Amino acid sequence: MKIILLQDIKGVGKKDEVINASDGYARNFLLPKKMGVEANAENMSKLKAKQDSNQYKKSVEKEKAEKIAEKLKNITFRPDKALRSEIGVLKVKPLKLRNLTKKRLTDDEVKQKVVNYLRKNEFITRSVVQSICGMTRTTATRQIRRLCEENVLVNKGLQKQPIYFLKEKE
Q1: Does the model's pTM come out above 0.70?
Q2: Strands, sheet with 18-20, edge to edge from the N-terminal-most edge strand
């Protein structure tokens, strides 16, 4: 006897699945306990309508999600401490911005870029060094520290908000 299951039954089948059950199992167990209904034409049409409705809902949700994803595609943000603590640590794909320069710059190339920038501008910050040299935050900080030790740059800002200037030749 063909039965449409109304719930998941371990070892038998899942909800809304049409199974072939023995007559005794269907009449004595599945039908009295309302775990399934007979798969006649009326019940089959109801099942088909239910499946079509679910499929339509899924396709509509997918279209909405794709539209939202398209809108959000080019948005980037940096969460504050409260949001980070609420969400926790997330693994994200790194931005392609880190590959601004494929090869690592030598110390002399970094020094040259920083000095050239400072000839055109009054001061420089870590974020500017990071962007013009295409390096990470940590590497930019190390390079600035190295340039200060070599007496190329001098920090005239605060410790937490450093602003670097070219060291004047005496």
Answers
A1: no
A2: 18-20, 2-5, 36-38
